Amino acid sequence: LQLLQPKTVPKRLEASQRKPREPHIPSSLIKEIFRHFAKMPVTRDAFNIVEKCAERYFKQLCIDLEAYTHHAGKKTVEETDLEVLMRRQRLVTDKMPLNVLIERYLPLQYRKLLIPVAVAGNKVIPCK
Amino acid sequence: MAAAGGDEQQMLAQRLKAAVHYTVGCLCQEVGEDKDVQFTKQSIAAISEITFRQCEVFAKDLEMFARHAKRTTVTTEDVKLLARKSNSLLKYITQKSEELASSNMEQKEKKKKKSSAAKGKRTPGEQEAAVTENEDSNM
Q1: Domain A27-125: which CATH class?
Q2: Which chain A residue shows the shortest CA-CA distance from B57?
Q3: A23 cis-preceded (ω within 30 degrees of 0)
Q4: What SS3 class is residue B40?
Q5: Contact across the interface for A87 and B64, Cβ inside 8 Å
């Protein structure tokens, strides 16, 4: 064991040196989404700003979700916390339920995971 | 309930609006004296209308927060969550709620002492102070 330990330590250091960058959303994805909704030409500088905004958005999102989760006396973020957040952002309202937004904006494979669907044999997927 | 209650509700809304309008007028006068400006009647009316509508939004949000925490009663925690949008507002509200909590604690202790020592003489001044503080925090 004593012989093994010194070998593993430098390996870990190398691994941490290899990726010092913070995790982020690929800029190509952000570009694609923004271009899809903007429907007009967007300059490269504007895209850079959008990217920075997205980063900030996620930071704020984390802070807010933490507050809402702690508020409910939990330590794990759940779907209800996200729904409260989206209600606060006025994305989800009485006239626009969360499921409608999911149906409208998420691809089918994600929708299947989020919205229960009745299938043959009187089964509901995913079961709650 | 729908037909008869509708009229009653309208009356209630009118009364509430009038109360909000009066308070907004007082506050505007205070601010006006402080900043040496004057508010027109229209601007005061507009502010009171905004306040009234904003209260609807606040009420819905507070209700949602309380329900999210599996409560049926809105607490100061919900109000703090409501004030999270602005940092300075959050600081102010937190400070106020702490003041309120400490004054409540004092009152409880005093009540306990009084009830244990002698049941009588309540100091009306203190109670009034506590009541006005409550009103401040509600605003």
Answers
A1: mainly alpha
A2: A88
A3: no
A4: coil
A5: yes
Residues of B in contact with A68 (CB under 8 A): 68, 81
Beta partners for residue B136, in sequence order:
none
- The pair of three-digit structure tokens given for residue A86, joined into one six-digit string: 């989206």
- Chain B: residue whose CA lies nearest to A72: B69
Give A68→chain B minimum CA distance, Å: 8
Q: What pTM does this model have?
A: 0.71
Indicate whether B76 belongs to any domain: no
User: Which among A70, A82, A88 is the top mutation candidate for probing chain B, defined by the most B β-carbons within 10 Å of its own β-carbon?
Assistant: A88
pLDDT 10s digits, B32-84: 999 999 999 999 999 999 999 999 999 999 999 999 999 999 999 999 999 98
Tokens of B91: 């600081």
- Interface check for B83 against chain A (CB to CB < 8 A): the answer is no
Summarised one tens digit per residue, pLDDT across range A34-73 is: 999 998 999 999 999 999 999 999 999 999 999 999 999 9
Residue B21 included in any domain? yes
Give the count of beta carbons closer than 10 Å to the beta carbon of residue A6. Answer: 8
Q: How many domains does chain B have?
A: 1
Chain A residue numbers touching B64 (CB-CB < 8 A): 84, 87
CA distance A112 to A127: 11
* CA-closest candidate to residue B133, choices B86, B101, B94, B87: B101
